[in-house]
Write a structure and sequence with these properties.
The complex is a heterodimer of chains A (250) and B (277). Chain A is mainly β and 250 residues long. Chain A is built from no helices and 17 strands. In chain A, the strands form 5 sheets. Chain A has a 4-stranded antiparallel β-sheet, with no helix packed on it. Chain B has 2 domains: 137 residues, no CATH class; 130 residues, no CATH class. The longest helix of chain B is centred in the first third of the chain and has 40 residues. In chain B, helix 1 runs antiparallel to helix 4, helix 2 runs antiparallel to helix 5 and helix 5 runs antiparallel to helix 9. Chain B has 9 helices and no strands. With 277 residues, chain B is mostly helical. The chains are: A mainly beta (250), B mainly alpha (277). Chains A and B meet through loops of A and helix 1 and helix 2 of B.
Chain lengths: 250, 277
């Protein structure tokens, strides 16, 4: 839905996109939204858990990243616009339960998603690419069942990084501010299961990982930067807290 | 033996139902993977079926034991006081299996955890697996069972527990090694070879010992498996207290896996000696 914010009220509300992903399960819905530098909008739509196989079909919105214009129309340069029986809004497919989405200034798109038991992924998203779920995965089902014996396949993208066992990533930012010098130019991924923030930094062609804020011992739901550059963390649960990160000089 | 046959019949019937249930999800998965033109071979299909039987099955086994215990108790009462037909247990098995799968979805995750249960045909097959379990239960309680039945039941469950370790070391040895604390890639090539070779042989051998014990009821097979795991437990403690390695509480499991088959072997030996006298 799009709307205008005036005097703390939303006006001119208009549904600009409705996912063709009807589901009766209340999970794996979709979580993130962001603008690309060209002004188009990216939306993530989860695989619906019971409908995971649909993530490999292009005739629905299960397990897809969607790209639309602000008015809901489809950009003419979307990758599947001219493909018969494919929904033209689809930007990439083969995703599971996307929880983090970052669009860089240069237009590169980074995303992370929950795997099943194991196999959480950190991906570089490119138009038209298939990210493999559930045909390839590094995880197994919650029940212990095999989802796929394959982890790699031609025509399917490999994650930049994956986590086994799962960390349950919940949100992500790319920090390029100056207030926290040690975190500069890093991806910061909050995690529910590992109860920390993963600081991911690209060094040469590899992505290093460091666990920070693990002393909080809390399931971390989200991370954000205020207009003044301060970092906030949101913890998960009935007594969830919004925490402001400050630097203490010793 | 008259009373003992009932719980052991439930254990065996539940194991049959697990063996029939887990392949439903496995085949649903294999069919879908094949439809995506993925290179599903005999070997990879076997990997899916066996892993599902062990990992998914062990969860289902616990659930099915409980549901069968309740359903067959009620069916037994119905047989005694309402009407007596041999189909009561199979019907009870089918109904309780279908009901359990329905309730699991509605009152827990709201999702269909068993992929094979998403279609109407899959639901029918699951109920049929419950029906077959009920029929086996009826067959097993229809006459008095000997001690060998109980030993074979316990021996089969023991082998089933070890099966998971066997599968891990055969199909995903690097992952299995990391479960034991090895950083596989940091080992030399010779060390990697020794690790995979020896650990795989260790678990495959003990699994086979227990299976042979179940088939032949020769106590030597159970003693062999028991001695191996008991030794592992003893040397685990020696490593901790003599060589100063990290404390590893897995020795509790090792002693359990060792003493259990030794008890089975001892029971067989005792019965044979008794029969001689």
């Amino acid at each position: 839905m799009s709307a205008e914010l005036r005097n703390n009220s939303l006006i001119n509300k208009k549904v600009i996109f409705e996912a063709n992903a009807f589901r009766r399960v209340p999970i794996h819905l979709g979580a993130k939204i962001d603008f690309l530098p060209d002004g188009t909008l990216l939306l993530t739509s989860g695989d619906g858990f019971d409908y995971k196989e649909q993530a490999q079909s292009l005739n629905n919105h299960f397990g897809k990243i969607i790209r639309i214009n602000k008015d809901g129309s489809v950009p003419s340069d979307n990758p599947f616009v001219d493909i018969p029986n494919a929904l033209p809004e689809i930007f990439s497919y083969g995703h599971r339960n996307m929880q983090g989405l970052v669009v860089m200034e240069d237009g590169r798109i980074f995303e992370h998603e929950h795997g099943p038991r194991g196999g959480d992924e950190f991906n570089l998203i490119e138009p038209g690419k298939n990210y493999g779920w559930p045909a390839i995965t590094y995880g197994i089902d919650y029940s212990g069942a095999v989802i796929s014996p394959f982890t790699k396949m031609d025509g399917m993208e490999q994650p930049l990084k994956y986590w086994v066992p799962s960390i349950a990533p919940s949100d992500m930012i790319y920090y390029d501010g100056d207030l926290y010098p040690e975190l500069k130019n890093s991806f910061l991924v909050t995690a529910l299961k590992s109860r920390d923030v993963k600081k991911i930094k690209k060094i040469n062609s590899l992505f290093s990982e460091e666990s920070i804020f693990s002393n909080l011992k809390s399931r971390l739901r989200s991370i954000g930067i205020s207009p003044s550059g301060e970092m906030y963390l949101l913890t998960d649960g009935r007594k969830g807290k919004l925490l402001k990160v400050t630097i203490t000089k010793i | 033996m008259k009373i003992a046959k009932y719980p052991f019949a439930v254990l065996v019937a539940a194991l049959l139902t697990v063996a029939l249930t887990t392949p439903i999800s496995s085949f649903a998965n294999i069919i879908w993977l094949s439809s995506m033109n993925l290179p599903v071979s005999f070997f990879s299909s076997l990997e899916i079926i066996l892993f599902d039987f062990q990992r998914l099955g062990i969860i289902l086994y616990g659930i099915i034991i409980i549901e069968f215990a309740i359903a067959f108790s009620l069916a037994g009462l119905a047989r005694k006081y309402v009407f007596d037909t041999k189909y009561l247990y199979p019907i009870a098995g089918a109904v309780i299996t279908g009901l359990t799968l329905f309730l699991l979805v509605e009152f827990t995750t709201q999702t269909e955890i068993l992929s094979g249960n998403r279609t109407l045909f899959g639901k029918f097959l699951h109920c049929f697996a419950g029906f077959a379990g009920g029929y086996l239960f009826y067959f097993l309680i229809s006459k008095d069972r000997e001690l060998s039945f109980i030993i074979r039941t316990l021996g089969t469950i023991y082998a089933y527990l070890i099966l998971g370790l066997v599968l891990n070391w055969i199909f995903t040895p690097i992952s299995a090694a990391s479960d034991f604390g090895f950083v596989f890639n940091e080992l030399s090539s010779s060390a990697q070879n020794a690790l995979l070779r020896d650990f795989s042989a260790f678990f495959v051998a003990t699994f086979l010992f227990s299976i042979f014990g179940v088939i032949t009821l020769n106590s030597a097979w159970f003693f062999s498996a028991g001695i191996v795991y008991t030794s592992a437990g003893i040397f685990n403690l020696i490593a901790i207290y003599t060589h100063g390695t990290d404390y590893n509480q897995i020795f509790i499991g090792e002693f359990f896996l060792g003493i259990f088959p030794i008890a089975l072997g001892a029971t067989i030996s005792y019965q044979k000696e008794k029969a001689k006298v």
